[in-house]
Amino acid sequence: MKVETYNYNAGWNKDLNHSLDSAQTLVLVFASSIIEKIQKPLDELITAFPSSVITGCSSANEIYQDEVSTDGLVVSVVRFEKTRLRLFSRYVDPCLDCQIIGEELVTNLIMDDLNSIFVLSDGLNVNGSQLTKGMNSILPEGVSVVGGLAGDDNRFERTWVLHQNRPETGCVSAVGFYGKELHLSHSFQGGWRELGLERKVTASKNNILYELDGRPALEIYKAYLGDRAEGLPGTGLLFPLSLREKHNGKEMTVRTILGVDESKQSITFAGDIPEGSFVTLMTTTHDNLIEAAHIAAKNIDFSGYDNQEVLSIAISCVGRHLVLKQRTEDELEAILDELPEHTKQIGFYSYGEISPLMSGQCDLHNQTMTLSVFWES
What we know:
Layout: E1 2-8, E2 25-31, H1 35-48, E3 53-58, E4 62-64, E5 67-69, E6 73-79, E7 84-91, H2 98-107, E8 114-121, H3 128-138, E9 144-149, E10 161-163, E11 166-168, E12 171-178, E13 182-189, E14 193-194, E15 199-205, E16 208-212, E17 215-216, H4 217-225, E18 241-244, E19 253-255, E20 257-261, E21 266-269, E22 278-283, H5 286-298, E23 311-317, H6 318-324, H7 328-338, E24 344-350, E25 352-356, E26 362-365, E27 369-376
Parallel strand pairs: 2-3, 8-9, 23-24
Antiparallel strand pairs: 1-6, 2-6, 4-5, 4-24, 7-12, 8-12, 9-25, 10-11, 13-27, 14-22, 15-16, 15-22, 16-17, 16-21, 18-19, 18-22, 20-21, 23-27, 25-26
Helix pairs in contact: 2-3, 5-7
């Protein structure tokens, strides 16, 4: 496995290595949601790697090693020696349940030696919870799914995923990796703590929250935010919700805001908010987020690793970036401090992160740092 990473801001940081092009090469792109800013370098990539599998999505800031860039483009080019690749992408039918789309992604990638799947999804028009639920329903045992939801900084206007080498809104894309020689180790951590009262979800539908304790959800949320409510939905990223199925239950997931509807006094989240569940507002500190990123890297399992080239894909939530601000690169440095010395890392700040739970099933996460680390034996 040979890995090269590139960064584009007004120009490439180094010449593209055309010799890496092959049917067993993955070109992974994370870039600005403003297509006009990245179309030229994207076209250059497509020309340079005509035989390769190319996938990618828009971001809410790009990650290159331990640096963060805005409105640019980061790329990893990975030529595998023993691993085969297969790409499937499609438009999202608004009338079609996202669970069915998740099932279709896996169905089109299943083969006897399927090792793992990397999935990218539109960040605004896809219910990530239903997408992962569909994938889990037919996913073969032992196959890991990692990935994320495309971002658009804190604008929440338009995200894109590459479909047939074009940046398109309303698409999902998945790459299947085949063969026993590929190692994928994954980890995620949050670093948030609960704040205030636990409230019962009394009215919701999928990922749209209408009522908490019988009161309009947006009304309650605005009361918590105070003056910051004027900046919704962007300021809502600073205060995600913890979600439990039972009152004071131990199993908890995090949900982050995507949009608000003033007329219906509702809030749209990146994942489902089931009726009858319980939610609590959350907050954090710079140090807690950075330590969580460090723990995520420390938890990567390097069993079977013997000084091979390593690619780390870091997908972190846009809400973490908004909290950390100028300290954002500290969480990236904390990761690389724990990974092998010559690790090459790219990634992006997202509207949702996809990574397996302890059970092995993939799930949608919000406000986490997720790491997917690849190498070949």
